[in-house]
Amino acid sequence: MPFSPRTLLAVAASFVLALVLTPLVRAVARRYGFVAKPKSDRWHKKPTAMLGGAAIWLSVIITYAVFISGTTYGKFILLASTFLFIVGLVDDVLHIKPYQKLIGQVMGAAYVVYYGLSLPWTGSVLLNMALAIFWLIGITNAINLLDNMDGLASGIAVIAAGFLALSFVNTGQYTEALVMLIFAAALLGFLVYNSNPASIFMGDCGSMFVGFFLASSALINVSGGRSRSFLPVLAVPILVLFIPIFDTTFVTVLRKLSGRSASVGGRDHTSHRLVALGMSERNAVLMLYGFAGLSGVLAILVQRARLDVSLAAIAGFTIVLTLVGVYLAGVKVYDESEAEIALKEKPLYTFLVDVSHKRRIFEVLLDVVLVILAYWISYAIKFPPSSPAWNLFIRTLPVLVFMKMSVFLVMGVYRGLWRYTSMSDMVVFVKAVAVSSVASVLMVLFVFRFEGFSRTVFAIDAVLMFLLLGGSRLAFRLFRQMLPAVGTQNGRRVLIYGAGDGGELLLRELRNNRDLNLSPIGFLDDDPAKSGKVIHGLRVFGGNGDLASVCAQHEIHEVVISSSKMTDERVQEVLRSCTEREISVKRMRITIEDLHSRWPKADEF
Fold first, then answer.
1. Burial code of 507-541, b = ≥16 C-beta within 10 A, e = fewer?
2. Could you report the per-residue pLDDT of 271-311, keeping only the tens digit for each?
3. Which domains are assigned to the chain?
């Protein structure tokens, strides 16, 4: 790669400039009152300096002027991005109307499109120009919406800029790659002060400059260079900036479904929902960084890999993020009474929400993709890309989709609820996959005489189909295990007495019912054989004589007895020990009432 020591100097200069300019801008913002105050629809909890985008913009402008001799589109992008920075700065200072900002974005987008940048996704020049304008405005606003938690937008922008630089290197655009590294270095210098806990925000001047610069640079990547195959042109810009696109789409759809305006701020973004599930702010941001990194790696893979491999990788990544999105959509972030009123006023939204809750359409569409993916992977494992056997894959794929989906429907794959997927459901999946695989083989034998087919492919396909089918259904339980339950930090710390079936049942209830605000810490059991064992990630402590020390060591607030076999004498001992230490004691009971004996008959009212 033709980078010289001057390249490293340029990147270092941009980073140092941002590192020095950001605290200066912060001091000016505080002095003159440009401070973001906490609001009900904003995440931050204390007044925080704004206008951090000025430090980013200055760092990029100065470094570009000193080290970059010029690029084909560089000066046009920098001028348009500077114009968007000014529009954002005016909004930060004067709070202009949303439509006025939109007009500014249209003007900036039209400027760079006029000078030759477009998205070459179709054969029509006019349509490509229109798509480019929509892309520029969409990504600019996506970065603006993503700036909802300390370090999130700036960190995601650093990752996107880094992968755009790699993409430029792959296509031989080295000067453009250097510009992106300078841009990433400026963001990284700002991120030092913007990461949790942030002492300065980039403001609209920063988010509009950053978003527009990234969107425009992505257009350079697909408009030039040596990689001209269709998929990189279509997918690379989307994948590099996938997280802001995903978050904006996710928030817009859910706000519309709940009867809320998509343009009004709120605490319902992807990051906010992760925190609502129990993650810390820092970990929620790091998780989104991870997804941004994965999408960036996928973008680089698309530039180098075969078309079918790229499509399979994109499909897999899309499935994972779709499952995450569906899971996060169930997190309560709105007041239920307000949501019900909004939905009653808009019957169409009520209909859409009702359908979305059933999720059956989603499950069917997901399984169609999984069937195709499993069958493709089976062929990819068995045959090289040049093998004539791939013709059989194309011919038989519709047959497999038809047979497997039919068997899945008949055998009850779509009757269960994902959040309660259990071993009995897995048995159903094993049967469904086995029967559908045998039925598919028989159909292929009947239609194609099984000439040229490999039995190994169908065996591999059956195994993969079960793993994908079962894995997708277990995804929600996996997410629940990966994410800490709400109340882990602030809820009452609970010790479950009894590490048997009742204790395991109680643990699941405490974790599923967040309204209880109870945080299970571990188990206690009098059986020495269970001491030191682990149940669902929680340790079992010895009960005989260890209750007081365990409660003191782990700061227990409450003990819940789950075993119905515990003698009254032992219960009294536990009660006395806990009372001395002001620890409340409760006992789990499962009772079944006879409603006929409790309520009068209908003719007695």
1. beebbeebeeebbbbbbbbbeeebbeeebeebbbb
2. 888 887 778 889 889 999 999 999 999 988 888 878 778 88
3. 5-354 (no CATH), 365-480 (no CATH), 485-587 (3.40.50.720)
